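Cross-posted from the bioinformatics board.
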Amino acid sequence: MIELRNVSKTYSTGTEAVIDVNLHIKSGEFVSLVGRSGVGKSTIVKMLVAEERPTKGRIVLGGWDITRIKIHDIPLLRRQIGVVFQDFKLLPQKTVYENVAFALEVSGYPKKYINEIVPQILMLVNLSDKSHNFPDQLSGGQQQRVSIARALAHRPKILIADEPTGNLDSINTREIIDLLLKINEYKTTVLLVTHNREVVNSLRKRVIAMEDGRIASDKARGRYVF
Amino acid sequence: MFFISTSRVLKFSWQHFFRNIWLSIVTMTIIVLTLFSLTTMILVNVVADYATNSIKDTVDVSLYFDDEISAEAIGVLRDELEEIVEIKEIKYISADEALLEFKNQHEGDDVMEATLFELEQNPLGATLVLKAYNVEQYPAIMKKIKELKIDELVEKIDYEDHELLIKRINDFTDKVKTFGLIISAIFIFVAILTVFNTIRMGIYIHRKEIGIMRLVGANNWFIRLPFILEGLFYAFLSCFIFWVLVFILLHFFGPKINFFFAEINFNIIDYMESNFLNIFGFEFIIIAIVNMISSIVAMSKFLKI
């Protein structure tokens, strides 16, 4: 489902953010990508959503080689991947309902379909009663659930969560992780990027650890020991 | 799909306009103030035109006839002069009318009144006053009059006295026009810059939103169009509000402004009413184009990948 082959990323300043990374994530897997801040985890996420291009190597996502993806194809790619960010990235002038619906509106889905799907997704993340609220009226945990709901709107095969619990307390962190696990039960591939040791160690799922831009270890039932 | 997208874009524009209402109000206020300075510039140019035309209107050429020349002979000459295409109007002033006018002009002048009293008969002859369509045509008229060979009929033509004045008026009005154009160009440039920067600032404020929309999979035109349409709303609403204010101000101050410019026959209310569509259309088109270009330019930075 996600394949990186000899991928490197060197910025124009000379910084080598990612060095010769090889990894393969199968469909339906739940994988944690861990490491200290600055080891290249977010760079990998940016390359997966085509916000950055690799300097070397190939990236294949769901069978689509996105290494040299054309600019006008990037929106199409992003509609097929669900992404959740540490800072939620919700549209502040839209309600919870509108934020989730927006992901479908950009794809041109008709209003009737959107009106059927969005309530279902909000129910999945337990936010049905907050559909008319704006993001600044929600707690951090609720905002992150809206972000997850939006990421799920067009039923992506892959969900990438980049430090989704970075701004949350332990209770909300647990809720978000449980939600991600629930999504994975529906066969969605989940890539969790985090430096939260407790979360990773409690999951007992595959753990890929990075150090200085390289893959340091890749264990099926790993622990984050750095 | 096209119609779904169009209706969504319109919905997003409208939603964005109202949900950022304070930013919308500030933006429209700046546009209204810009329209105020643009319209003032237009009116200044118009008043200058009226003033220079009013001055030009005072210029004419008078043919003074000897008092022995009959009205019939003058009538024949008048018919010949009417063949000259550059002449807009020919006014006949009889000898008696000329004397009355002379007395009115010199009312209170004891010496002149005493002189007239001494003369037993009217010393003045009839006059034909010729007006051209515009001041630049007088030399051509004079040339054609000379070809008619009317020296025996006409005692005096006062064109030579006015020739220098006419030249100076022409030079002055040309300079006023040129100056008006330069000032107008500066005003328009400043107006465009003001609106351009206002719209750019508005979009800069929304840069994070634009980034989020890109990450969710919106293509560039899906992101751009609502902002462009919002710019058109600003343009239309601002022009509408401005013109409502203008007509309210004209209602209260129009008569006073008309009185101020009475000497040059400039009626601001009539002018604004009869040119409303032209000026509104011109201003709306300029502001709308500037808004659209500003939106596109401002967003191009945030839509680069």
